[in-house]
Amino acid sequence: MASQTLASHVANHADSQDKLYKQVALRISELIEHGTLRPGDRLPSVRQLSEQESVSLSTVTQAYRRLEDQGLIEARPQSGYYVRARIWSAPPEPGLSHPGRSATRVSVNELVMEVLRHTHDPSLLAFGAASPGPELLPTDQLMRTMASVGRRHSREWNGCSIPPGNLYLRTQIARRALESGCLLAPEEIVITCGCQEAVNLCLRAVAKPGDTIAIESPTYYGILQIIESLGMKVCEIPTFPREGVCLDELASRLDRCRIKACVFVPNFSNPLGSCMPDEKKERLVNLLAERQIPLIEDDLYGTLSHAPRRPKTAKAFDKQGLVLLCDSFSKTLAPGMRIGWTAPGRFKDKVEHLKFIASIGTATLPQMAIAEFLASGGYDHHLRKLRRIYAEQMQLATQAITRYFPEGTKVTRPTGSYVLWVELPPFIDSLDLFHRALAEKISLAPGHIFSPTQNYQNCIRLSCGHLWSEAMEKGLWRLGKIMGQMERESRGRARVESRPAAS
Amino acid sequence: MASQTLASHVANHADSQDKLYKQVALRISELIEHGTLRPGDRLPSVRQLSEQESVSLSTVTQAYRRLEDQGLIEARPQSGYYVRARIWSAPPEPGLSHPGRSATRVSVNELVMEVLRHTHDPSLLAFGAASPGPELLPTDQLMRTMASVGRRHSREWNGCSIPPGNLYLRTQIARRALESGCLLAPEEIVITCGCQEAVNLCLRAVAKPGDTIAIESPTYYGILQIIESLGMKVCEIPTFPREGVCLDELASRLDRCRIKACVFVPNFSNPLGSCMPDEKKERLVNLLAERQIPLIEDDLYGTLSHAPRRPKTAKAFDKQGLVLLCDSFSKTLAPGMRIGWTAPGRFKDKVEHLKFIASIGTATLPQMAIAEFLASGGYDHHLRKLRRIYAEQMQLATQAITRYFPEGTKVTRPTGSYVLWVELPPFIDSLDLFHRALAEKISLAPGHIFSPTQNYQNCIRLSCGHLWSEAMEKGLWRLGKIMGQMERESRGRARVESRPAAS
């Protein structure tokens, strides 16, 4: 690319001549983004660039004007164009969600499975699966811990670990729970095969087929699938992208519907990234306690706060044992180990029985290795690094979205975790986008799978769990290009439809 | 013990003077069993033993007569008593089971959990849990394999392995399935968290809450728990201790009840140890195929045949994809790894979806390590050793039961696996026995938990998965003593009840 002229690069990619200035602008914004051009640097003059890159003067002028509009460069009188110091201003955030009001039978299963087959394909650009990149995990260190544990406890590690699971691990988890405001004893914790099994068991402990479960809207498709597979119904609660479920709406639904339990992700929800303020969590817990309704709290992303201190869990405010806290190490440490846990309050015995029935126990050595890794302090060190990295690369991803995605795009501003929820202009069907992106080896999660009522057809979830790279930057640029094409097609259709029909 | 005289030993243990001769006989039978007295050896004369051990002549005479009745010694005219060459003749086998005929709601859960808490306590003599002894497993070898795989595939092992699971492992499993008569492709296999998860998923794939499932009687309590937890009902099919379910009875129940699926363990069932002959398996598969009823086949113990060749699976005869074969490596190789699998025939897609929903994936490194261990030939070598050991120690256990358990005891003669099903005289309540044994640090599985209708209150399952030892021999001797005490108490109660009531 370095040896190519800007024009040849642009000519290779531009779809039509009248969009050439946009491509010129895009290329310059990339140079700015990558630091080749720094804030305060002077850009080539219009004539200079026109000659150098073999494009017309007006193309360069249009390109510079576009960059000026985007706030990336500024014209200084009698002097020329300069890179602005404050180069970036993100698109607006999405608003409160507006799901339907009635209880719904779930059926996202088929679509989710289709999406999944692709999101876990390692040959694709990994915006699809909400997984940490392997390059960010202390995998070799974990392997050494595992080998060391295996040597020292050679009989124990290959024995079955029946519920509630390894005591040393439960002790370490109880210690760490203090950070989230929870006073838990190891006896209150049950180890599970990841957070997904934990949520399954908790839901089965508190509700039966036919019952209605309140969920955030949009919500993680895995939760929808669990509810669907258990023959339960959902009631979607409107949710703020910053503060989580709307409590007034929740209260009103609780009064009108027979809601048996809630499954919420108060900290850095998936896909919204919303984080309910701690005082709001307390109100939520009290609201449910008054009605004796259990809350299954999925805290999978709670430790991935971008701030140095993680937020509290709702469980921290639970006085009646009605909050069933679920968590795992899959998003931060060891996706391959499938070690999760739950502190199911007053439902502990039932959950423990159900765990035995579902899968007898959880793999023993991974439990022992994670316990040792936690006890050694290695986990804290790793988390600090991970939080810093994710805070940075969420910004990079948002900047790229700002530059490349069509006008009218909205994007969330999560303060933790690594997923962005992007609301696209209404002409984008995200399932169509998903398939076109696949053809260009890019994975993403279409909005359809985050609601049983197909409310989010123009939304996508972009996961930024892998270490940021030029390839990812380019991937978002290509997504932008695909959406540009979709926009043109949509306009074309609109023109055809607006023609008077032949008589 | 060696320095004690027989009399002092007996005095310490005998509960009443009139049972002294039994204790003398028991002690001599132990000397025979342990090889101190060998076939053909002459026993001390009655007078000699009486003087030596400070017991009466009549006590010794009674003891020798008892041993003669048991076939352990013989009197040779003018010469005295000798140890017989054929020292052992096992008690009779239990007969065909006679469960009730109607569909039953299951509720063994609470009792099973109580039993479980004890059966996995490593401080107890391990007759309770059907697990292989850690000393019999190639644990260090597995650890080395794991470390080697971890080094060579450092990114892959810590990544999530979504369903259907690791391809290399599925390939190895497909190869091994040939031995059981199955032509399986890796694509037909789904990896699970042990066989328990596999049976769960398969049952959920073929039946709904409220449906009736046919099971063997008695059957493994884990299967009962799954059915209970899913809100299904069971229909218990009479089962032969040697040949498995009675097909005539099964056919008649299928005609009369709406049976949605069967969950059977055709090879070395748990707890009966029955092994259905291959031609009977074929008839079973055809019988069900005619009615389009799925068979969930749990083959957990199939590889543990005491003969050099393992029996076929029912799946080997499945032409319609109606057999859902479930298996794992927990009983033979790695109880701590929780790696199982299923080949669910025409229900494969549904099972694969349900697996994702239940627990996303199965731990990755254990899958890779077992695949490598299988590919290296290490598993075959290990299995040959294990089969030989279990064949031997099942005999030792049966011999000990013969010697120590009360008259009227019946015991199965499995040709594979390591569990014995013991039918005790009617005065033994096995739950009472379970609690008394616990007090003496011995675990066992009471018959109550193997049926939802409490049909097996005088039965116990004894697992001989751990390497045979003197402690286990003594454990069975102590169980015999406890049952002797229960017999006396039962007679005492009978005397009290038969007294005329005071007027």
Q: Roughly what is the average pLDDT of chain A, rounded to an integer?
A: 90
Q: How is the biggest beta sheet of chain A arranged?
A: 9 strands, mixed
Q: Which structural class matches the secondary elements of chain A?
A: alpha/beta
What's the CATH architecture of one domain in chain A?
3-Layer(aba) Sandwich
Distance between the termini of chain A: 54 Å
Largest interface: A-B, 60 and 60 residues
The quaternary organization reads as homodimer
Total count of helical runs of at least 4 residues of chain A: 16
The fraction of residues in strands of chain A falls at 5-15%
The CATH superfamily of one domain in chain A bears the name: Type I PLP-dependent aspartate aminotransferase-like (Major domain)
Q: For the CA atoms, what is the radius of gyration of chain A? A: 25 Å
Helix content of chain A: 40-55%
- CATH topological fold name of one domain in chain A: Aspartate Aminotransferase, domain 2
